[in-house]
Amino acid sequence: MTLPSRRAFTAAAMASLLVGCAGPGAGQATTAARPGRTPSSSRAAAKPAHALGRSVPVGLQIPAIGVDTPLLRLGLAADGSVQVPPVTAHDRAGWYRHSPTPGQRGPSVILGHVTVGAYGDGVFRHLARLRRGERIVARLENGTAAVFAVTAVRTVPKADFPADAVYGDVNRPELRLITCGGPRNGDGYLDNVIVFAALSSASP
Length: 204
Hints:
InterPro entries: Sortase, Sortase_dom-sf, Sortase_F. Keywords: Hydrolase, Signal. This is Class F sortase. The chain has a single domain (3-35, 55-203), classed as Sortase (Sortase, Chain: A, Beta Barrel). Helices cover 5% and strands 41% of the residues. The chain has helices at residues 41-45, 163-167; strands at 3-4, 17-21, 29-33, 57-62, 67-74, 93-96, 106-111, 135-140, 145-157, 173-185, 188-203. The strands form 2 sheets. It has an 8-stranded mixed barrel. Strand 4 and strand 5 (67-74) form a beta hairpin.
């Protein structure tokens, strides 16, 4: 199994980020990282896209890699890290409910497993195959489909997790999909795969 987790943050300041994934075994490894404070110049200069009103996401589709999953709501665990979806045979991704809903201004964060222990492959097993421009659809509780286009796919060492780029404020509706990747290290993985996407359209 594989997933990052992070500590709660406010609009003014973010606390430590925890990034952890688990492989075929039951354990979970975590690595702490500190977020940066300055957004990239390209992100700061981007014109805001038309934002949607708040509506909780209930499903996620990524046609290019065959993903069609209901979305769980994830909060914070007792240690301040983000909850991860349960390890089950019918693996589902989860939306971090302290992030914006997909289509609101800011980075909406969705987490998924790349493997789920004895059950095999996770819902985000092919996330690293996504390419710039490919389509991601978040189905919202109000019936809207928020359509995003991939802007970047990054595989990064856990120790160098780009917390500010992932969780920091942006001036348009964006999406972050996160899983684990790279080589195995015992029961876990050494890297995280992060997909960045921006809202391109919405339809009822």
